[in-house]
Amino acid sequence: MIxxxxxxxxKHRPVRTLLSALAIGVQVVLMLTLVGVSEGMLHDVAERSRxxxxxxxxxxxxxxxxxxxxxxxxxxxxxxxxxxxxxxxATGSLxxxxxxxxxxxxxINLAQFNEMSGGFQYIEGGPFTExxxxxxxxxxxxxxxxHAGSVVDFGVPWRVTGIVVPGKMSRMFADLKSVxxxxxxxxxxxxxxxxxxxxxxxxxxxxxxxxLLPGYGxxxxxxxxxxxxxxxxxxxREFTGVVIGIGAVIGFLVVFLxxxxxxxxxxxxxxxxxxxxxxxxxxxxxxxxxxxxxAMVGMIAGIALSYGARALLTxxxxxxxxxxxxxxxxxxxxxxxxxxxxGAIYPGLKAARQDPIEALSYD
Amino acid sequence: MTDxxxxxxxxxxKTFHVGDVDVHALxxxxxxxxxxxxxxxxxxxGSGKSTLFHILGGLTPPTSGSVMIEGRDLIQxxxxxxxxxxxxxxxxxxxxxxxxxxLTAEENIEIARDIxxxxxxxAAFDSIVKLLGIEGRLHHKPRALSGGEQQRVAIARAIxxxxxxxxxxxxxxxxxxxNSQVVLDLLRRLxxxxxxxxxxxxxxxxxxxxxxxxxxxxDGRIEQL
Lengths: 363, 225
Ligand SMILES: Nc1ncnc2c1ncn2[C@@H]1O[C@H](COP(=O)(O)OP(=O)(O)O)[C@@H](O)[C@H]1O
Ligand SMILES: [Mg+2]
Fold this sequence. Notes:
The complex is a heterodimer.
Chain A: H1 2-12, H2 14-50, E1 56-59, E2 73-74, H3 76-82, E3 87-97, E4 104-108, H4 110-117, E5 122-125, E6 133-137, H5 138-144, E7 151-154, E8 156-164, E9 172-175, H6 176-182, E10 188-189, E11 191-196, H7 202-212, E12 217-220, H8 221-227, H9 236-265, H10 267-275, H11 280-316, H12 328-353, H13 356-361
Parallel strand pairs in A: 4-9, 6-8
Antiparallel strand pairs in A: 1-11, 1-12, 2-10, 3-4, 3-11, 5-8, 6-9, 7-8
Helix pairs in contact in A: 1-11, 2-8, 2-9, 2-11, 2-12, 9-12, 11-12
Chain B: E1 5-18, E2 21-34, E3 38-42, H1 49-56, E4 64-69, E5 72-73, H2 79-88, E6 90-93, H3 105-116, H4 125-132, H5 147-159, E7 165-169, H6 177-194, E8 197-201, H7 205-208, E9 213-218, E10 221-223
Parallel strand pairs in B: 3-8, 3-9, 6-7, 7-8
Antiparallel strand pairs in B: 1-2, 1-4, 4-5, 9-10
Bound molecules: adenosine-5'-diphosphate and magnesium ion (MG).
């Protein structure tokens, strides 16, 4: 019966109920989208690292895990690496950030890179041949509306010769020498990709390189990929925390106001319940149940909206690879529920403490 | 204590503090009500009738004096005790019906049972509903019911937990003559057939005539005639 009352109360003010649930939904979608984008981008970095076909990755001392563009080393190391036992292939690349913060052009030795990765699949055009030629993957191409023959200005004009299927290390590629010379990094590479003859030799090779190149970052690709996580992105945890906090405050405020107005307009009903013998806990329980129901509707709305947000991002910002992180559904729901319940405490206590005769004896 | 009394009030006072002003709503009420009695309380507006009912019904604590209901002393009761008194010992009927607008008639009756924590419908539920003549109106919300019907639903709600005392504060105050008679008849039948103890506030001498005994209130006291 109390559930019936809770349901009827919410139904009685459909607009307020829907708006409150929607606000909780916005809070949930905020969390889910942020997590979806950050997990999606990290997942993308991991996938593209795998796409190189390498078994071992070598980075210059002090370089960041998440961007291939930070820290450079002498490209003659590539030759030394190639001479080591069990090394089948080794190729260096220089990744240089261009355009916006999420874009970088990778200088590669096309023949070596193709051999290691299995080669690019061309959707349009073909490989780069001239010094300021480049190829670009379809995601960046569609975002920047580029086609084979387009010219892009990254300090110097680059001519797009081909559009390729995404998934291999970077989104834009040009000849290593030409990237080195254009961005004054002659003789430098930022990543060395190594293919090992037999998978079981990978740990051996990693150990060898660690001895050979003290201070350098040497990982098996599997280890590297596992490092590509939110924990290793500077400030991402904090940023996520701040956004969740803001979302929770929105949820708290909306529920607070919504329940507060509900309590004010239900003075008489609360008085009636008390006259019937309802304890403060019973009255509080009604408000809390309403809040839980609101939060649940809001959570479902938020999850539904997160699919919409992903569709929007894929449409307008394809660089932001967004994934649906199921493990965050219960977490986001719980956070939304807690914020809502905290928001309901004050109005709920006000209702629970209300003097029944004030409501019943005067109109 | 008078033999068989269900309510026994001695020098009962109630003072409200409104800002700096003390409002003496009750100034020493002496009243004894026997089990199974149907008592009318009449008196001018502001004489303290409702306040007396609110105290007897556990809605507000008395200021001084003594008041026993079913052998329990109201003066010593905590908030929780008064909540339990409202739940189990008294049933209220108000002038303004005071049904919950979002629930149907039946749900309005059921919620009283739910609050009291009674597990199942009392055996008498159907006979109460039949006696009150609201069988056909149970699935309607209050706004779809006439005033008389709403008041009958309110009476059903007040007695569904089988209270020792029914407190009715001007139950016919908002009703026309015909509906008033129906409601008053019902109260008298509840009293006669089920032995329900009833205290009723009224302005109307005709209404008061339905009861066994009439007491008059003036200036926060019961006038001894
Ligand atoms: N909650 C309250 N706060 C302050 N004064 C009150 C309150 N309830 C009643 N009073 C005052 O107590 C007096 C008696 O009121 P009431 O019991 O309602 O009288 P009646 O029901 O006989 O008309 C009135 O002067 C009224 O203004
Ligand atoms: Mg009154």
